[in-house]
Amino acid sequence: MLASLFLVPFAAAVWLYYFSAWRPAVAAHGELIDPPRLLPAIALSLPDGGTASPDVLRGSWSLIYLAGNSCAESCTKALAELARARLALDKDATRVQRVLLHTGDCCAPGFPGPGDEDLLVLGATGAGGEAFLALFPRAPYGTASIYVVDPRGNLMMRHAAADGAQGLLKDLERLLRLSSIG
Q: 4: pLDDT confidence band, cut at 50, 70 and 90?
């Protein structure tokens, strides 16, 4: 009887894992990109005409919003949600950077505005930019997305921008708590 106290739970676990259709629920609110995609270290353009360091997306967690040639109302709303999520991280906010990645001549003069000093605006143009953008999985039906990149440059998660920042914030808190990098 004493041995059954240890063997019965083990046997039940083996049966559930190998012979049952039951699987534990996934805790992530966003869509995991499996396998994660290593983003190449390329020089992306800055709004002032210069180029960013090839390692700009390495060293800290990056929240990337993909924009087309302009940042319309939905884009500014998503960037504001990202700012709130980053601010809600409190002491871990310095481990996360917000990135607006655009594909053309983006944004009006004076963008980003006041309060967006931490927003990194990068352009992916040319053949290298197209190959870089091809690594980002597109959302169904053209839905705008927020992508999470780890400090090693791996594209690992996608969130729908329309879902708000609540699920993204929960995933970020979990990632930052469990991560020993960045």
A: very high
Q: What is the pLDDT of residues 76-102, one digit of tens each?
A: 888 888 888 999 999 999 999 999 888
Instruction: Flag whether pLDDT at 160 surpasses 90.
Output: no
> Any idea what DSSP says for residue 25?
P
157, 148 contact by CB (below 8 A): yes
* Cα–Cα dist 11/19, whole Å: 11
Strand order in the sheet with 31-38: 31-38, 154-160, 145-149, 61-67, 96-102, 119-123
* Amino acid identity at 110: G
Q: Name the CATH topology of 30-178.
A: Glutaredoxin (3.40.30)
Beta strands in 41-140 (DSSP E): 61-67, 96-102, 119-123
pLDDT tens-digit readout, 100-112: 888 876 766 656 6
Among residues 33, 31, 30, which one has the least CA distance to residue 155? 33
| Closest alpha carbon to 89 in 148, 174, 147 | 174
**Distance separating alpha carbons of residues 138 and 33, to the nearest angstrom:** 11
